[in-house]
Every structure is written in C-alpha cells, then in structure tokens.
Amino acid sequence: MGLADLHLHTIYSYDGTATVPAVLRRAREIGLDVIAITDHDEIGGALEAVKIAPRYGVEVIPGIEITTAEGDLLALFITEKVDAGLSLMDTVLKVRELGGVCIAPHPMASGMGMKSLSAFLILKALRNQKVAETLIGIEAYNGTAIDRVSNYYADIFANGLDIAQTGSSDAHVLDTIGFGATEFEGHSAMDLLKALKNRATKVRKQNEWSAFRVISNWSFRYVESAFVRMTGIARA
C-alpha cells in the first residue's frame, strides 16, 4: 500500500514555516510515497518541490489550496495558479480546464481563521456533473484541525457520499507532516489518482496533538522561520 499526505504547506504560504527541501526530507523520513504541496493561493512552492523531488525519493503532486468565495478548496495536479475569490463552482470548473482534480479540505471546520466549505455548498456543487467529475474527494480527517469536532462531522458526511475519502495533515510545520494520511493501492501519484477516482482510498490517522500543542508549536516555528520567510532566501 502507498501512503500520501495531500495537504501540506511551505513558506510559500503566508502562514507556512518550512522550506520546500525540509518538507521533502521530512516526508521521506516518515515513509510517505507521495505528497501534495498545497500552499494558500500560491503555486511556486509546489513547482519548486516537483523540480527537486527526485533528490529526496518522494513524488510530489503540484497543487494549491484555493480561497474560493465560499471556502477553501484543494486543487491537485495543476501547474498554474487559479484566481482566489471565484465561486466554488467556477473554481472547480477552472481546475477541470487545467486538467486537475479537487478535494474539499476540513469541511465544516472553524477556528484560527479557517475558511471551510459547508456540507450544503458541497452537496449543491456536486449536482453539476462536471463538478462531480472533478471534485472527487472529501478530507475526512485533518490531522491538525483545531476544531476537532469537525473531523467527526467530516467523517459522517463523507460516508454518506459516493466520493473518495482522504486523510491529510494540513501541516504548516515540519513536526506535523503525516499526522493524517491517505492509503492507496500502489505507490505512485498516478496510482493515487486512480484510487481517488475509484473511491478506493482509506484514511490513516497517524498522530494527533491537542489544539494547544498545535497552536503553540506553529507559533514557535513561525517566529523561528521569520528571517527565511521575509527574505525569501530559501525560494531560490
């Protein structure tokens, strides 16, 4: 079985703390086969990761966490930015045009500025056939969600839909990479995509911290990485 973390942030995100090489090293250390770099409304980190991934022995899916008008949306297998602020429907259709697929992250979650899609909006969007062919997954477990109850509701919601379920860390620091993960048959990104489309993925809960520990660890790492983020020294 392959193991993937499909929701990771780097210093290319406004709230990220880890450089791309550091994320790749950590992913390999903990045994991930595939990762997706999904910085907030930014593709640069993902493109950098794809370029240098062979050095680290982990496969990278380029992606973005897009801020739609209704909430956040993960776009995978795309190499171009998608404008923030579009409706959920228009965003998914744009990702489709670019050859990508979408996953709804941390649905119904709140706290720490999270902008999550509601169950109603997801169901409404899935009534459109083209959207349903592109929005192929629900993040049923988010390993660093501050709103822990949302994981419970996301799991129930996902189980009621004919859609793939994923587990991800939503890591903004190195320490939490892989806390949530997605199991799939095979080991490559293409194997993973096939499993998502066939609704054959499984959620794996690797670890879990308290909300206090998640916030305090991020705060420390954010201050620690301030120089790198401000200078962009690791973005070359």
Brief characterization of the structure:
This protein has helices spanning 20-29, 44-52, 88-97, 119-126, 129-134, 148-159, 189-197, 211-224, 226-231, and strands spanning 2-8, 34-37, 59-67, 72-76, 101-104, 135-142, 164-168, 180-184, 202-205.
Descriptive notes:
There is one protein chain. The chain has 236 residues and is an alpha/beta fold. The protein has a single domain, classed as Alpha-Beta Barrel (TIM Barrel), CATH 3.20.20. It contains nine helices and nine strands. Strands 7-6-5-4-3-2-1-8-9 form a nine-stranded mixed beta sheet, sandwiched between helices. A hairpin with a 4-residue loop joins strand 3 and strand 4 (72-76). The longest helix has 14 residues, at 211-224. The model has no long low-confidence stretch (mean pLDDT 95).
SSE layout and pairings?
Blueprint: E1 2-8, H1 20-29, E2 34-37, H2 44-52, E3 59-67, E4 72-76, H3 88-97, E5 101-104, H4 119-126, H5 129-134, E6 135-142, H6 148-159, E7 164-168, E8 180-184, H7 189-197, E9 202-205, H8 211-224, H9 226-231
Parallel strand pairs: 1-2, 2-3, 5-6, 6-7
Antiparallel strand pairs: 1-8, 3-4, 4-5, 8-9
Q: How many runs of DSSP E, i.e. beta strands?
A: 9
Q: State the domain count.
A: 1
Helix content: 25-40%
Q: Which percent band covers the strand fraction?
A: 15-25%
Descriptive terms for the model:
236 residues; globular; 22% strand; alpha/beta; TIM Barrel; 9 helices
